[in-house]
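Quick one: examine this chain and its backbone structure tokens and tell me how the chain folds. Here goes:
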Amino acid sequence: MKKYFCCALALFAVLGQTFFSFGWPVENLDLEKMVPSFARNRKNKFNVSFTFPNAQKAVAADNGKIIAVITEHQNDGDWFDSPLGNAVIISHNDDLISVYANLGGQSALNLQEKFQVSDGQELGDIANSAWNENPQSGSMEFQIADTKAKTYINPLILMPRSIKPPRIYLDGVTIENQFGRAYNLATLRSIPAGPYTLYKKRQANISPHKTKVYVNGTELEKISKEVLKWQDGKIYIVGNKNYTSEQFYPSDETELLGHILLPHGVNTITITASDILENSVTANYMISGY
């Protein structure tokens, strides 16, 4: 282990401290080509993987035990919601497992003869055995899951923060009533009091790591992409309730910010969005409820 390894969920609750438990799972990492794909929409499902395009070799992100080797001719099982191709699953401390998908066929066969692996140990070549966003080059699909909590963990929160995420924008924010009618929040001045849903325009190259929605200073919704919850055969993102991919991404252009109850009178709706490094952007809207 590189640093003291505590329970993953406890990591999320500790403020002002940073714990890095895993190393990068590929050799010769090109930070410019990393794809922050966790919790993004992939074929109408949440993507539980982090993608490393144009990678050549997979390496163990930490010490562990190989508990399964999957070939492209096997079913991936209940937990794994996207085709893995040739893959290896490694168990670690604190009920965590890591998954390395899209490996070459011979690499997968070689791993069937191994049990223990050490941090940084080569696992094999990366190929095109799994579903691939870029079929012209190999892409490593990497996953971390907490088997006890039944959550997929965003790998970035357990890795060195050496990336520089693109800037987040709060553009195209809309407010939708319970009958499905949407209004542009930037130009809206008054609206009937009652329940509403807020959405933002999706960016092509980044999605907020966390969003919060306030009305008159009271936090009404907080959504985090630190974990995705697996329950009853479905994967959810967690806010005030569990949201499916269809609820969180209702169209190719929008993503959910949260639900509010707008009271009568003059109100201030505040929205904040932040990236993995806690760089944030805030937008305020004055709306009268009648």
Remarks:
- Residues 1-19 have pLDDT under 50 and may be disordered.
- The chain has three helices and 23 strands.
